[in-house]
Specification:
This protein has 430 residues and is an alpha/beta fold. It has 17 helices and eleven strands. The longest helix has 18 residues.
């Protein structure tokens, strides 16, 4: 788990370094093109294997460059990175996440990659903006995805319930279908996963109502907005459209194959588009991707966006930022690299690269590409990167929505508490 206190210590050290001597230690690349770079990422066995192959391919094409691999796992990655930043020895290339990019950027830890030859001219519209903080390009989109409601067609068929037309369905339709499915499905069927405690579902609804989660340095919604949203969750609970409060809590932390959706007992679930393959493999079922419902009943008013599944950043203390830029540029724009890594980090942002690798993708990978293309008419502005401290929203939302689900609180009184706690977390991280 990412420790914010550790980050602040590390970030403070980085900020100090940037003011008293980063320039001295970040220049000095060899004139003959030789460089030694460290490369840090989190992942799994598949990502580790593909990243290793890509790195070896780069070194073969650039024999004067040596790249030291630093693979890790999500749970320990951020603690390790904050410690490395504090010790002024962070990896030259850093796999970055949207949840933390603002924190690291605002403390001077990351390179402005627009100064080091990274070409984003062939990226899909708005996919470059994800990595821009205060006008600097501190992260390059490593892959894109978007939120989707996955649906289990087999379960709908068993229940005799028609799938929705996702170009027209509303939140009320989502409620009625979930209720109908739970009532008519086989014993133990629940209509939908309870995704309301997540900031992802909240953001969908906020954006359709002319708001958003965050500004560059704070919240973009009010307690009244949040109370209205939480009222929808209560409607789903009262209509028996989703599991009981106890069952919802039992789902937390389960692997996909152990969840109600993964075991074929639930109709709808919220996922990112690049998770389709993992869900299909875990469930043994071919799930279908739907656009999320809209307030207007019009998919062109979805106000969705392409999210960076992760990003590539460069360490501001690197001894050879030019070599960092060259490597990242190769990673996102080179066909040979793309044919090794495919869509493991999400659908590539470079549209020409997508065309080059699409035939090599799995059926789920191709479906994700098609989905991202289908939702284009409903895309809105790329949201601001989450401000420092906002990564606590998940824990805060979960705790207070639990109180609502168990009847210990109500949306009107829980919403101000959530907003107050989140504002305090953001303020303390500034």
């Amino acid at each position: 788990m990412f420790n914010r206190r550790q980050f602040l210590v590390g970030a403070a050290a980085a900020a100090s370094a940037s003011s008293i001597g980063l320039a001295a230690c970040s220049g000095g690349g060899s004139s003959d093109g030789s460089a030694t770079l460290s490369f840090g990422w989190w992942g799994n066995d598949v990502r580790n294997r593909e990243t290793d192959q890509a790195i070896k391919a780069y070194m073969k094409a650039n024999p004067k460059v040596t790249i030291k691999q630093q693979p890790g796992e999500w749970d320990s990655y951020w603690d390790k990175l904050s410690t490395e930043v504090a010790g002024k020895n962070a990896p030259d290339v850093i796999q970055m996440d949207m949840a933390y990019i603002s924190q690291y950027a605002k403390n001077g830890t990351l390179l402005d990659l627009s100064q080091y030859g990274v070409d984003t001219s062939k990226f899909a519209p708005a996919t470059v903006d994800s990595g821009k903080i205060d006008g600097k390009l501190v992260g390059i989109n490593a892959g894109i995805n978007s939120l989707t409601i996955l649906v289990n067609p087999e379960l709908f068929e068993k229940a005799g319930v028609d799938l929705p037309d996702d170009t027209k369905w509303t939140w009320d339709d989502y409620l009625s279908l979930s209720t109908e499915l739970q009532a008519k499905g086989p014993t133990g069927t629940t209509g939908t996963q309870c995704a309301f405690p997540t900031d992802n579902m909240l953001q969908i609804w906020l954006r359709q109502n002319g708001k958003d989660l965050y500004t560059a340095d704070g919240l973009a919604f009010t307690a009244d907005d949040l109370a209205q949203y939480l009222d929808i969750m209560v409607r789903f609970m009262n209509a028996h459209a989703m599991p009981t409060a106890s069952a919802i809590n039992e789902e937390v932390g389960k692997s996909i194959d152990q969840t109600a959706f993964g075991t074929g007992k639930q109709g709808f679930a919220l996922y990112w588009s690049n998770q389709l393959e993992a869900v299909n493999e875990a469930s043994g079922t071919t799930m279908k991707m739907l656009r999320p419902p809209t307030v207007a009943g019009d998919a062109t008013k979805l106000n969705g966006y392409y999210k960076a599944s992760m990003l590539w950043s460069g360490y501001a203390g690197s001894k050879d930022p030019e070599a960092v830029g060259k490597l990242i540029n190769w990673w996102v724009n080179n066909t040979a690299c793309a044919k090794i890594c495919l869509d493991e980090r999400g659908t590539p942002a470079n549209t020409e690269i997508v065309t080059a690798i699409e035939s090599k993708l799995t059926a789920a990978g191709k479906a994700a590409v098609a989905y991202l293309d289908d939702i284009k008419p409903g895309l809105g502005k790329t949201p601001a990167a989450p401000p420092a401290g906002s990564s606590q929203i998940g824990d805060i939302m979960q705790r207070h929505t639990n109180d609502i689900l168990f009847g210990k609180d109500k949306p009107a009184t829980a919403a101000p508490k959530i907003v107050s706690e989140l504002q305090a977390a953001i303020k303390s991280a500034q």
